[in-house]
Write a structure and sequence with these properties.
Strand content: under 5%
Order of helices and strands: HHHHHH
Largest sheet: none
Shape: elongated
Oligomer: single chain
Distance between the termini: 49 Å
Helix content: 55-70%
Number of helices: 6
Length: 143
Amino acid sequence: MNAGVDQGRGIVVASWIGDGLFAVTAIPVALGVDALDDPAVGVALLLFFASLVVWCWALGLAAVRTTRGDDVQVWSLFLLEGRVPARVRWLLYGSLVVCLAITVATAAANPFGVLVPMFPLGLVGLWGARHGVYPPRKSMPRR
């Protein structure tokens, strides 16, 4: 991996680990393994509550970067606009797509699973807040 891809590697890995945990519990429940009902709900809620922390962290970092002169906007934060290694973009959005596919396939068996995609999406924003490159903020005219 090159230096650009290594930036935020832990964020990318965390996104895929979340998908793995979600899949290991939600898919068997959808296939009728009732013994995993409680763990599936627990994992879904754990990932959702972790996503709340991740979202607050990402938005807080973005706010700090904005006060330091970067023009960080919400859509550029979560769309990973600008100079982002293509592999990072593919891995983060791939994780989100996998999570959404698991959610669609298992939502009837575990309705709490619909909360889980907030986790990989929040990690996209966290990567953007930590490693994204943004133009300088334009000065606001004084009133």
